[in-house]
Records
---
Amino acid sequence: MDIFGLRDRLVQDYADYIQSFILIHDPQIRGYVEQELGNGLLWPEPLIHMNPSFEPGAWIDDLVQEGILHEECSRIFRIKDTPEDEGKPLRLHRHQSDAVRAAKTGKNYVLTTGTGSGKSLAYIVPIVDHVLRTGAGRGVRAIIVYPMNALCNSQYGELEKFLCYGYPQGASPVRFARYTGQESEEEKQEIIANAPDILLTNYVMLELILTRPLEENIVKAALGLRFLVLDELHTYRGRQGADVALLVRRVRDACDAEDLQCIGTSATLAGPGTFEEQREEIAAVATKLFGGTVEPGMVIGETLRRATPETDLSDPEYLKQLRNRISDPDRHPPMDFEGFIRDPLSIWIENTFGITSEKNSGRLIRTVPIGIRGADGAAARLSDLTGVPLHLCIHAIQEGLLAGYKCRDPHTGFTVFAFRLHQFISRGDNVYASLESPESRYITVYGQQFVPGDRSRILLPIVFCRECGQEYYSVRVRQEPDSNQKIFEPRDLSDRYHDEDTEAGFLYLNPKKPWPENIEEIIDRVPSDWIEEHGGAMRIKKNLRRYLPERIFIGTDGRGSDDGIPFNYVKAPFRFCLNCGVSYGARQVSDIGKLTALGTEGRSTATTILSLSAIRHLKKEETLPEKARKLLSFTDNRQDASLQAGHFNDFVEIGLLRSALYKATVMSIV
């Protein structure tokens, strides 16, 4: 599948959606916003993150033969695709093997490895082995704590493959259950009455289990608890970290777990420094969290290896080969394994997106993810290195990455380049402008207090009339008690409260259609329901006169000034547009439906738009497995049915399901 093409289509759909509700009247602001959107303001260049190759470790069967694992582990830990599949032998990575051996010591340990390194097996294998050796059905032997339910649900699915696939229904050798608060009442009662060997939960629910009488039986079943796992240790910091550290201590006490073995996993806990320095830092943090010693030697890191031959990238002969390789658009990556890994471009790609050497130790470590395009992107580096035009470099890199995913290592069965494309999409911020004439005002989409380099010119957020696109400054005005001078400050559109000292409102400035001062002209511009007949003449209703625009002169510093520019100020809520005249009833208090900003659209709606686009484009992708395409079609049909029936809540729910499905599908493919 061409993930780069999918990304471009997805971004284009989102761009069309954003531009469909952003109507901007002023040509300068409109041009600036269109330019920033075109430059990727809301969808910056995606980052490429490659899962490197790992040093192979022991086969599960070999660990069984050594007596390190129970013999049933040979049947459990296999590569299985379907419930009936008996599976293929499983070989661990070296860091997974090291973790299994570390678990046998009974000491606390931490596995700190990157994404896609199989961290969960580092604690699942030892836990299952322990249950098999001591006997299943004797209460909760392990509690695995996740920071988010999504991670818990994902791990539950992985446990199903190992512990249920290949066994008759209901005959799993080790029982496990998920208890996060999302379960039905029937499922909860079953867990309370018949506790599993392994309990998957989150730290909030674990706190409740310890304190609520309802779950007292779970605590009793966990007496003598052997394992407590904290997944994603790096999420527990600050106050939350202190709460979890105390929770670990309460679990040890409540479960009378004198021999409790604490295990942690993390991808990003370490700070700067060498690997040995990182191990010491991680051990110190984990010791505080666990309330028990974690030795630096029990911090296990990943051991990487190169898929391509080690090469001096500055060697003139290599550079010549690389230049010749990418300058010819008719040359394509070899599809056989040996040919692919020796391709000069493949070597450069792995060294750029995959692995590099630690300066002091020479240890192989992951590279920092980078984009392909952009001034600091990989294509620009390749172009500078070889002198080959940028567009050819972009094409070569994308083609090389896609080919690397299709090419498999015959020794391990893994793809040579398993990479991920990380596309960050923002809902956007406001447009900001200085208090100057439309021809000379400073415009930006980056929130800041002053015009760069000039603190005498403040910046205020701009909102736009949904009907005509006329811009308004969204302000809060306060009056200095000593001088009675009015000061205008930035205000979020949703902030509409008034108090004794300040007031929410808007500033209008349109030299081509200024607000009139003559009462006859004003009557022609206000909404018709603001006018009444009195003594044979038309006048503004008394109760509405206080809402008429007020002429105010304001300096560039946001203070009222006789030398300033004339604006018209109106109080919030927004009652009618001074440019096009569209009006709103007194009961329409919120201004969100009347005015819009660059980041006004809701997160739920944006998520639904993105996931809808992803699903419908993926449905057309013929390279996807049939099972995935059927699931995509089912989800899309449910979405359409919800929309047609007017079930908005279902619409949002299915949209979020799409988002999760999109992530799961794409990440498993590329």
---
Amino acid sequence: MTVQEYFGCNVFNEQVMRDRLPKEVYKSLTRTINEGRALDEGVANGVANAMKDWAIDKGATHYTHWFQPMTGITAEKHDSFISPAPGGKVIMEFSGKELIKGEPDASSFPSGGLRATFEARGYTAWDPTSYAFVKDGTLYIPTAFSSYTGEVLDKKTPLLRSMEAVSKEAVRLLHLMGHTDVQTVRTTVGAEQEYFLIDKSNYDKRLDLQLAGRTLFGAKTPKGQEMEDHYFGSLKQRVADYMKELDEELWKLGILSKTKHNEGAPAQHELAPIYTSTNVATDHNQLTMDIMKKVALRHGLVCLLAEKPFAGVNGSGKHNNWSISTNTGINLLDPGKKPAENKLFLTFFAAMIEAVDEYGDMLRLSVASAGNDHRLGGGEAPPAVVSMFIDSEMEAIIDAIDKGEKYKAPSSAKYDAGVEILPTFKKDNTDRNRTSPFAFTGNKFEFRMPGASQSIAGVNVTLNVIASEVFSRYSAALEKAEDKQAELDRLIRNSIHNHRRVIFNGNGYDKAWIEEAVKRGLPNLVSTVDALPRYISDKNIKLFVDHGIYTEHEVYARYDIKAEEYYKTVNIEARTMSDMVKKDYLPAAINFLTDICDSVAAQKAAGFVPKHMEEAAKSASETTDKIYADVKALDEAISGVDKTDSYKTAKYYHDNVLPIMKSLRKNVDALELMVGREYWPVPSYSDLLFKV
């Protein structure tokens, strides 16, 4: 069977709906999806019946309302289609009511105080804009999740709200600019996913990987990624087989997996999809992460999605490629052949410069986590300072606009390798800058800061809402202006003049840039703890409340959840380190020291002077003493912590626990380099990174 034949075969997509639904039901559902109209119960019953029959034909026996709570992963409760029938038989039933509404327990998910333990009822509501699908014998129905009293408890609902907000404000602005044929605007996303593959037998011997998802100890290997031979290198057969099956599983679910290759670090790889509408892209990315892990196990591998699973080599990100287009087919971020004369493009481009500058703190917060703190600014990932790359041509254009001058376009540059047999072709409008957090790459922005394990929902809520805010400002000014063209020119020029400090086309890894960024007034929010207070600033609360994304109460809840998630993560890692040291590393050190001391004593009894062995024993003994002291300090630091205030607790773990963890790791890693392989209790970095 060809890819064309099985692509989307497990998805209740438009073609399936057209084939299986009664004509009027199909038309009504299409209006709901395309125009946001309410779905009546009669139509829901028709859809549910057809969906059930299709799923049963696919081998499904159960259905689940699949939702995205604020854990950052997905949740599902499976119910069978069976219903009792006379004579001890069953029939398969599924109603419109069951399709559009589910009732999971709302108190068992993070709520930031929105729900108490005894307030258990919650609702899931069908999202008809994201196709249902069959996986592992269950019909999955994408849904939104809220509490009994209406508080939003998930990542899908704010995303859908932000998509409506950006469409509303962009359409409003476009109509004022004369594009009155535009009815809707949608944002599209493609999320490039980086990951590591390691052998499961090695994974099973590392408690840190099992509990924390990353290595908490590990001495540097003799070879890392310094030879730059892994990036885009030939795929190992085992990895190629994994990638082949992964593509097949994703394609069956209609996920547009496009590109696969080796990444910069040994054992690191990347998958990139074709971009699609933002809520679907978010659902697809959650599915992709889940399937990556399951397929890996079938190959005796484990897929690691932690942001920094190994010290000393690249971490893993998730590059969020974001663009915005009209229902009439116009990409509003496409510069065209003459970007300096493309007023439509310049309007939305300048608006994004203002949005990123003014709300860079919220973009930083959208990717904040304990795991991503280890990656950002780590030499292979963007720094914590949010800046925008626009390339030399675009910078020359905004220079001209800022100065009120006419831009003189250079002649079209062509690629010419100087070899006659090789083709020549026109170069792209922009170069790429992999060190930039937020880079313009021709007809979209690539936000490179998200971590590999993170949901892209929060990232895109933020991008959509900050764009909405600046679009609304432009519209408000144009609505008052007599000369709209002159006012639009002024708005573009002001955005560029007042916010171009956020533009940086150089090396984001350079420490000198961080110093320069601080001088420009750009926030350098190095850690999640540094960034968190910005979440509840008046400016940012107003942003989300004004555009109907969250209530003020819901903003505070998400602030609280982020703080709680941070300290719980660090606490799990600290306790895991303590456990490994006591049960693995210290016994190994004792065995090593016992054997070496016995050997020294035996050699002395034979009349030898084993000076080098005595020095080795002394060095290992001193390092072991440091490890004892560190683990004792770590246990004391995490015992009896007051957790009544989530932010204060997060700050305590950042300021008091992380430094001890760093010292403990340094000493254990130093001991690893002293101790023989036969004594060391866990697989080394060489085993993990090079034995797949």
---
Amino acid sequence: MLRLAAGFCVLALLAAPSPCSAIADGSTSFAALAAAFIADSQRLEPVAADYAGVTTYSDALPDRSESGHEREIAAMRAWRARFAAAPAVSDANTAADRRTVLDTIDQTLIENETVAGWRHDPASYVGDLGAAFFLVATRPGESADRRFSHIARRLTQVPRFVDAAIANLVDASKPSDALASSQLGGTIAFVAALERGDRTASPVVRARISAALPTALAALHRFRAFLDGPLRAKATRDPRIGRAAYDRLFRVTIGTDATPEELAARARERIAATRAAMLTVAEPVFAAQFPGRIVTATGDARIQAIVGAVLDERAKHHTTRDGFIAAARAAVAETEGFLRATHAIALPRPETLRVRRTPAYEAGVTGASAETAGPYAPPNAPSYYNVDPPSGDAAAIDSQLREDNDDVMRILTIHEAVPGHYVQLRYANRNPSIVRRILGNGSFIEGWAVWTEGFMLDQGFRDGDAGLRLAQLKWRLREATNALLDIEYHAGALSHDEAIRMLVHDAFQEKAEAEGKWHRLQLSYVQLSSYFAGLDAIERAENASPLDQRAFAKRLLDMGSVEPRSIPALLAAGG
């Protein structure tokens, strides 16, 4: 979420030339406006600035008071008016960036005024707190004294931040309250350990940490008591945001010209086509694995019997819970080795990817994620492929390991790491457009990662392994089903049982994975549609392009994280 205040510009943040002076002398340059807008957002969203690699505001926590919220809305309206009043642009690159900025502002206004997560989503506050300390404490390229001096100042602001959160939150959904409490436990543990942090920090700085910790920890425990007590008693809110809010957010968040209804129709068509393709791949594998077994069923029943049997057999080959992170590392090494050998996509330099367990303040939502160093971070700053080993009872762990079997671990790694999110976001970091470096469109980012799942196999990864192709097609089902679930849940009345049937029957997912997706539906909105929406736009552009697959991939990487609706014009313009 961007939080802006009109009329402020910070030259220290910008790679663009002197935007403040351009505005002061009456220039209506889009580049100057965009640079000032982004600089403003980083001042008022210091944690977002940390993610981008900007250290200027690492002493501060964001102002989450009601008055701060009101200032944000007023500033957003002022910024939107300034962009809307600027002269029209003709070149495709600037037009794409202008649309991104306007949609970003509109998205933030809808989030604040209509969805109003600041009144109902405690996990958003917990996410800010966790990142505020974790990102600075683990940041490369700064001395321990500098990092822990920032942390000491932030610790003194925790009580004010917690007071604002408690004052703002009027209710919550049960899943959001439970997630917030769980993640806050991880944050409390991390903050409590700061006193035993980097011993290369000077005694003076360590003393400041020790002095600030008791009050900060008391505030964090007070926040958790509020989550587990008064707020939990009011955690009866429906997680669905409703059709009106969903339709408005979809338009500005996804960045395509398709409506939710049109995307849902395309997703249904994709599911049917993908299930048919899976049968074609599975039939010879089935015949080899189960000689003499005859399936007389036709249509959907035949798909279910043959594809289901082959997937069930492949699911038996998986790592253990304790070996989960090591398996992810091995999958990264394999995909990187393939790209180095084939040059299908050039890996970014220097290579900085690391695999780790998801930090506790972020865990419990997606199972795996990418966290790429921001555009202002040092060139050698690490990027992370975060993974959550399965948890729960023995049956749940076994179910999740079957879902994340050896085939799926490779597809997951392609998507999250190489050449998916890690590679694409490293390329985006060096895009000449400040808009694309900072305000990257999530649908493009997810669409690229999905597209590369098929790209790698098309380029010969693992020599045409039919089982791996079946896993990749299963993920195509997953991505199209994600969109259907998101639309039909938040803009409709999709029930738990209907969702689980779609996931387990139609998309061949294990029960643990299906239940996890239902949980995620209740914690997010629109984002689950972004995978298929981005893929759909990229594939349509690819089908209309004369470029071969590798050249097309390079053009997408050079394009940056644009809205999918802008891809055709940028391809035509060479941008």
---
Amino acid sequence: MVDQGTPFLPKPTWVKAPLIALSFDYEGTEVRASDPMRRVFASTAHGAMSIDREQSAENHARAVLESLGATELECLEHYTAPASADYLIQPDGDAHTLCAFTAYAVPQLQRLGWRVTIDPDYPWQVVNEGQWYADVDDTRDGGREQSTWFSLELGIELDGQRINLLPPLLDMLDRASSLRALLNRRKCIAVPIDEKRYVAIKPQRMRILLDVLLELYEGPQQDARLHFSEYAAAGLLRLDEIFGDNAQSLSWSDGAGVRQRAQTRSAVQSIRAPSGLFATLRPYQQEGLEWLQHLRCQDLGGILADDMGLGKTLQTIAHLLCEHSGRAEHPSLVVAPTSLVYNWQREIAKFAPSLRTCAFVGNRRHRLYPRLDRYDVVLTSYPLLVRDLDQLKEQSFHLLILDEAQTIKNSRSQTRRAAVALDAQHRLCLSGTPLENNLGELWSLFDFVMPGMLGSAADFRERFRAPIEKNQDSARLGVLRQRVAPYILRRIKEEVARDLPPKTEIVRPVELRGDQRELYESIRLAAHDHVRAIIAQRGISRSTIAVLDALMKLRQVCCDPRLVKVGAARQIANTAKLDLLMEMVPLQLQQGRRILIFSQFTTMLKLIGRELSDAGINYVSLTGATADRQAQVDAFQNGVVDVFLISLKAGGTGLNLTRADTVIHYDPWWNPAAQSQATDRAYRIGQKRPVFVYKLIVAGSVEERMLQLQQQKQRLADGILAGTQTALDDETIDTLFAPLGG
């Protein structure tokens, strides 16, 4: 009778895949599965006996083996194997597939009572994970400044010997193109120990493990240990997640106390709002203050990136008040756009009058140089920061705060270089739009607040920008989000300001007809041909200005033909979008609504203003050329007029227009963040009425396609947080210059 099947895994010789020899035990006599004889002659204590083979039991055993992935060699035409083999396992399988059979099929067979013998030279042997260990050490790299560096060894203990698994794991990270497919495996991922042995790790555990290593990974390593900066140390805390609550499954050796430091950095303490603050902080603003204080206590920089209108200025003033209540030895410097310097002065006087503040602006500012240490807060503008850098570098500051910090998004700009050159103990960025166009802008801000945290610009481009922006690598995106999360605080209105009324966004398309449509098509054809010729001559990377210039002409036709400086445009009376606007505005005013109208083109605002005047509608306007900015704001806020015309650039910062409840974007722009900033002039704390946002676009035109590009950029920003110009390629250019309505 059949005892049990006994598979044998010999050393593969003719085919590079596992081979199985299957035999059956009849009273101590083994019979190969491939043996054709129907009876077995066995020697027993009672003498020789003849036993009929039990075909049904043998067939059942075969079925069990085949259900686990083995294929009978007789069924394969293109494989030649030794006569001793009966089955082949996954002939096209890789190490992960073959080790999965060893790790899962063999134990199942043994539980069913099978005897399994594995050849000592079998090249896909799987060892038990057993006890994991993590060894953290303090190390310093003379080439890396401004941060402490550590090293990690991670592996398993096998037969009393430590086996470091970091080299093969890091090799997997270096071959990241196959990482996503690797993590999608259902059974196991094989990590090699030597030429014949592997550790089989479940994909769920492996996914977290590689996430942690990606977070710590700083590029090619010098030795068999993983070297990482203190900014990435929080990733160590996630290693415990991999092994659950069983403390015996991962033993730690951390003489440097890195994990404890990481835990301390992640724990924000509750504090009271400072005395002398003439405002009641909302709960999320109190949390923001505690976060700012936590960063300062840990000697860290950060980015306060709350949505527009949630009170970044107030939270920062409360932070300044805490710091200058006996702790700060030097003044703090706030750098803001020129138009906001006096707004900061007014807000500090309103909410924290005890702070000694000076506006370091104007022709007489040089008299203040010897007396800056007498003040708590010094306010200046970005242009003056560049102009007066030599003098400001000589002054030590306690806090260096950049308002509308996206101003330094260009890492090569004079403004950013000037900001980096200042001497400050703590650095803070304020920006509702820390990422407008690409991840390079985020790097620029973080390299200012915490130099080295994201590596050099070249390292960051290789590790994050290229994989995320070009390949949509979700694993790298997750790693970057984990890395920056402790140092960037981003809340949106819908989450924390639930008392704000609803905001409704509406896209209003309009069709071009007649002469205006013909003008668009004629300019489009000529511009596309011109752009293609320039790209052929210079290459796409050196043709950006020509492309944007051609696109601007198309956008101007969409707005109003009178914006286009060609003779044919002057004869065209059709202005489809302006006609739509002049239908909308009177109806909105009849409903008691108060309107902001934004356009990138100041000439367009003049044309709109002329139409409003002809219709008997009073308005005020704000552009870069406006002399008395505050007078225009006051006229609107006090109800003198109900329509405010604002250029997109001039109105992007420093305006609180909560009396408005309707926002009209006359023409879209590349940068969705710039339009959101403009919208948030009205949709901010203090708004009591529902806000309606209208985006006027010409259907099927370059404007509609720009909205699609905006959505792509917004997805990138959202991925990190929870245009100067868009990146152009051949496909994008052909899309933008496609025929009207195509």
